[in-house]
Amino acid sequence: MKRSIESPEGNLPKKTDWDKQLSLVQIYIEKYNKIPSTRNKCKRIVELAKWYYDQKLKYDEMSDEHKKTWDQFIQEYYDKIKSNKIWKDKLDKVKLYIQQFNKPFFLIGD
User: What is the pTM of this model?
Assistant: First the structure.
């Protein structure tokens, strides 16, 4: 039986809480072009960000099905996840520079 609007379940397994959380992360990324942040003012977004980071830490403990789904997710959203990481890495370098030299840091051509 195929899924349809009238019969969304069909013969497919029920979505788990894990699947629902991942779907929410995907929706967030599609809407804002970045991963959820733990610094967001919205408590629900912060919870979503924590869930996302927990999955990265707990990857080895995931079921094979979740690992497969997670890997597909990472592959699909890699550019948005990567650009967020690159930005954060640069920010961390700037903070470190300011701490060490007590003056602003200017990036030229980067």
Answer: 0.63
